[in-house]
Amino acid sequence: RSVLMFRFLKNKDAFEHYYKVHLARRLLFARSESDDAEHSLVSKLKVECGSQFTLKLEGMFKDMQLSMDMARELRGSSEYSNLGLDLNVSVLTPTFWPATVPALAPAQQSSSQAAAEQSTATNGKSNGDPMSVILPNGVLSDSVDAFSAYYLKHHSGRRLTWQYAMGNADLKVQFGARTHELNVSTYQMLILLLFVDDGSSSSAKTLTTAEIQQLTHIPEEPLGRQLQSLACGKYRILNKTPKSRDVSPADSFTFNMDFKSPQYRIRIPVVSARSNIETEKEKAASQAVIGQERLYLIEAAIVRIMKTRKQMSHDMLVNETVSQLSSRFLPSSKMIKDGIGKLLDREYLQRSPEDP
């Protein structure tokens, strides 16, 4: 029924853009109901639109499979035995995955012990500067360095860019006499690690929002949502002063040793943005990405047509371009005219000397 509805869409490239974002979230956060169902729908889309349409979607599945195979190899290596935690890393190829995927402590045994951490790395050329998040010295930073060394040893000439916003972690945390296993985001893990009791002081450690940001370098907007999740949600792992929902730079936080729950394993959900619907800024960014992809497709179609026909009138070229691209989207005559103009400027095309 979904594929039947898909056939009626005029702008199938816009569908592909949003489908890729949601598929990336399902794959990275293990939220897919069925891998077989995911592959089945991609196969049906391939029948409808051709292999070029699903090339990036299939590349995402391939990246996840290669990452699982690499994790098995890493577990059998000497580097893994010295990590001190169970590390799972998904290595992604930037050309297959969307530029941004909406996202959503190992010290003294008496306070916190890291059980697992999953981060996401990027293989190849980065779309931007690497995240400048500060990892605490010790097991965590050593594990990231060990994985990087292992990966680059087997894949020379590549570069890893760690995307901590897309990771999650399992932590064993002791609250008084009771221990709970918390499933948190990587950002939440870094925040909780700041409150680890190192035995140097008898008083509870107190940190303000500004101090937490300075120690972790987590960006301001996601930091507020991470702190809300830990201090203002259903499970209040941190105590916040003053007791309000909003987080300001001057608010202070302490570890809640009195936390109680009947569950041993607890998932701490991240407070979502104000709306699941795109903001105007996000919508403009999505339209810009889609528009850029359309420009490439239009120019490629024009060049293909002219290589075959050698010479055409402007109107015939516009009509032929629309015909070739209608299976993905309906380009306007203005977009095609702009594409022809840019190709003329770059000397891919030239006007006829007899009838310019």
Task: Sum this structure up briefly.
Residues 108-121 have a biased composition (Low complexity). Keywords: Isopeptide bond, Ubl conjugation. The chain is of the alpha/beta class and 356 residues long.
Summarize the topology.
Blueprint: H1 2-6, H2 12-28, H3 35-49, H4 51-75, H5 78-81, E1 86-92, E2 112-123, H6 139-154, E3 160-175, E4 178-185, H7 186-193, E5 206-208, H8 209-216, H9 220-231, E6 238-241, E7 252-255, E8 265-267, H10 280-309, H11 314-325, H12 333-345
Parallel strand pairs: 1-2, 4-8
Antiparallel strand pairs: 2-3, 3-4, 5-7, 6-7
3D architecture notes:
The protein is α/β, with parallel strands linked by helices and 356 residues long. Helices cover 46% and strands 16% of the residues. It has twelve helices and eight strands. The protein has helices at residues 2-6, 12-28, 35-49, 51-75, 78-81, 139-154, 186-193, 209-216, 220-231, 280-309, 314-325, 333-345; strands spanning 86-92, 112-123, 160-175, 178-185, 206-208, 238-241, 252-255, 265-267. The strands form two sheets. Strands 1-2-3-4-8 form a five-stranded mixed beta sheet. The chain has a three-stranded antiparallel beta sheet with strand order 5-7-6. Strand 3 and strand 4 form a beta hairpin.
Order of helices and strands: HHHHHEEHEEHEHHEEEHHH
Q: Determine the number of helices (DSSP H or I, runs of at least 4 residues).
A: 12
Give the mean pLDDT. 81
Low-confidence stretches: 102-130
Please list the strands of the largest sheet in the order they lie side by side.
1-2-3-4-8
Based on helices, strands and strand pairing, what is the structural class? alpha/beta
Q: What percent of residues adopt helix (DSSP H or I)?
A: 40-55%
Radius of gyration: 25 Å
How much beta, percentage-wise?
15-25%
Query: So what's the overall shape?
Result: elongated
Question: What distance separates the N and C termini?
Answer: 50 Å
The count of β-strands is 8
Mind summarizing the main beta sheet? 5 strands, mixed
